[in-house]
Amino acid sequence: MSTVADKLAKKSTHKTSAKQVRLRLVYIDFWSAVKLSFLAAVALAIVTVVSFFLIYMVVLTTGLIAQMDEFLRGFTDGSLSISTFLGLPQVMAFATILAILNLIIVTVLGAVVAGIYNLAVKVTGGLLVGFTSN
């Protein structure tokens, strides 16, 4: 079985003093993948909440919410106001709910990808990875 790594190893004409090791990744630990994906999901959740806060502050500072209120008052008799629906508590509650849902989804997807990879290794033989020490 000739792979790209084999061809590149044969093309190397000069001797290097570094030791080269080629390993095959044949197993991903399920719980390690779950923990790592959970950690990535927590980071994504923090970014989501902070970005919602910053975007809300920019929209509030530029006066877009006030302009939308005036625009809607032109169509309605003043009974509908966007500022009642788009307050900081409502925006942060939505951001928190979205962050929690993303946390669950990313963690489950990390577990599913690890499981699929472990099943696919039985068919493909694993991922060939080359390492060198300098």
TrEMBL record:
For this UniProt record, the keywords arranged alphabetically read as follows: Membrane, Transmembrane, Transmembrane helix
The record's annotation in Pfam families points to: DUF3566
All residue ranges annotated as the DUF3566 domain in the record: 19-132
Transmembrane segment boundaries: 36-59, 94-117
Q: Which domain of life is it from?
A: Bacteria
Protein's recorded name: DUF3566 domain-containing protein
